[in-house]
Amino acid sequence: MYNEPPTSQSSTLPAQDIAALDYFDAHVHLDLMPTAGEVARSASSHNFGFFSCGVSPTDFSNSTKTLTGRANQPTAPGIRIGIGAHPWWIADGRVSKADIEMMLDTISDVRFIGEIGLDFSSRFNDVEVRKRQLQAFKGICLAAAHASSDDAPKVLSIHTVKSADTVLDVLEETKALTRCRAVFHWFSGSSDQLQRAIKAGCWFSVGEQSLKTGKGREYAKVYPAHRLLTETDLPSSKQPACSLEDLLASLKRTCKGLSKARGYDVRPEAVANAAALFDA
To answer: What pLDDT sits at residue 106?
Structure first.
């Protein structure tokens, strides 16, 4: 039986205590929401946490100030902010080579990195575009692996569309696979690629959209219990101005779908996994 926890209307959590939360969104783009500040301010009172993934490294400083009210990496309850370079933004030039260089200089001071990765779908079948994505991704993984530490490994939230084997190859070559913690966001590769990623020790963040497909529901049954996370990947083009209630509703639907697929209440496990990953 799947039971939703009550949503706390007032809660004072110690800094970094993700384990005390009711829900944790392991991949959301608050930097793309006009409501970002409001969501961040109301998160604690709803016992809600999130990992806000950036799409451009130039947005990192402003996002951190907006979401935490401070210029440095936050210690606010449940809020984690990543510096990212989304492959779509690299592909169309919104993230430049200079932006990537700035990101590489910053990575040593930032623990959470995302969204990064590769998209080799038909939209990006140009050889130069793929080359540009791959060069950026390799550089980011190499810098992250070099700057990571055993007591606080860097966390990477990774986009892998039609590119899972190449992503895994890069993670292995750069040592990011063992030095960092790789999270495959919305995994959509083949079953063989999934098994390779599982054996490699990768984590997986799952949202309601992936559970709407037969493949997604089948994969939901086999993700390792101790490396499973929940996500929203919001906002969408249809819903750019999300509220915290919208994020919570999406996570509840995700937990319900995952719980049905796996045969037990996934929510406590997903929160415990988020605490192990983001508080370690």
So the answer is: 96
